[in-house]
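Course assignment 3, question 2. Fill in each field.
Student: A.L.
Task: Predict the tertiary structure for the chain below.
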Amino acid sequence: MPITRRFMQLDVFSRQPMKGNPLAVVIDGDGLDDTTMRAFARWTNLSETAFLLSPTTPEADYRVRIFTPKQELPFAGHPSVGSAYAAIEAGLVDAGKTRLIQQCTAGLLPVMIEHPGAERFIHVQAPRPRLQSVGADVRRDLSEALGVPLSDEHIRLADAGPLWWVCDLREATRVRALQPDMHGIVTLSERHRTMGVSVFGREPAGSAQMAVRAFCPGDGIPEDPVTGSANAAIMAFLAERGDGSYGRDYLASQGREVGRDGYVRVKRDAVDGSITIGGQCVALIQGRLDL
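Answer field:
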């Protein structure tokens, strides 16, 4: 017999409904097996679905498993921000707490809460991204797929939970005008087992300092609306090359090209170099489901 479980669907990195990045959250995930979780993530057909579970270590406030329609991820940004929001709203953790610990496959991650209540702003510390240079052949193929020339100094492969190619296009106008060859990105992603490619450039005006886009058609999502792990990888790339032009605390705009218009606050600690990604959430659907 199916067990009734609480369910929530959010928009993450936005306080405006139908903006940001949608996330499905199964609140009472305990007892669901891997097959059911994978099948439900395929059924929602969102970029990610999160399952909240009882933690297996006393340090953690809650545990989360994150699935795309095709695979499980050790970490992802918008599911982590959204899972913290859902855990608070569902009463799994004390709504008055300003510091939480999220347990996920990537480890125990600190979560910081600003402005508890309707204006709640959630920051999650990302696993430290690991960067490596990209060979000339991959750089050439990525340049062809994106339709823009890429030099060695403007591209890295980043392990930020998912693997992303991170490309600096320098100007937001180039980022927003991009019309990549999705088939080419699929071929490259499958060959090198990456999530996809993210691009960024400077915004000359407005509240956001950076424009970001992320393409992951090999995982069933041609363009991800707003991508926490890619934004963390971008900050790590800037730090590696000593680029302080954006500062250690900036706002990134992502999703406008797919009608979602989300905003990510990205911070890097001046002492230990840790990176957090943060934003607001809004719940659109709250109910129950039978699995």
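Instructor remarks: The chain has six helices and 18 strands. The CA atoms of residues 147 and 180 lie 6 Å apart.
Grade: pending
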